[in-house]
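Sat 14:20. Reprocessing the chain from the morning session after the first attempt stalled halfway. Input below, unchanged.
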Amino acid sequence: MSEDNLTQISILVVENESPVGDLIETVLGVVDTRQIYKATNSAHGHVLFQAIGHDLIIIDVDIKSSGAIEFVKAIRDPNSAFSKKDVPVIMMASYAADDILEQARAIGIDDLLVKPFAFDDLIKCIGHVMKRK
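Finished this time. Tokens:
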């Protein structure tokens, strides 16, 4: 997926550190992503996801409320009110601990970005994940 194709997708960014979320929003805005929604915790993320639905979720592993793992489990669970098993999820983490990687793989995370990352890497990651969809 090129930057041009980002104009066709809606992205939910769930990041508890506002400056990081703002920076991601700015970068995605520069490449003209169709819609960018930000949440600072999983509860707000659930509300946005349920109300709008998104083509992609970018989520920080350390988000407040129930946490990223629980958030993704809820959207992957067919019995959940938030269920949308096919939405790609990119998880961001400040570290790449083995237990986090195992949990992420077990619940179907599509990709993992370790902070700090270059924003070119974010755009490439989005393209790679969306192409697989």
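The first strand starts at residue 10 and ends at 14.
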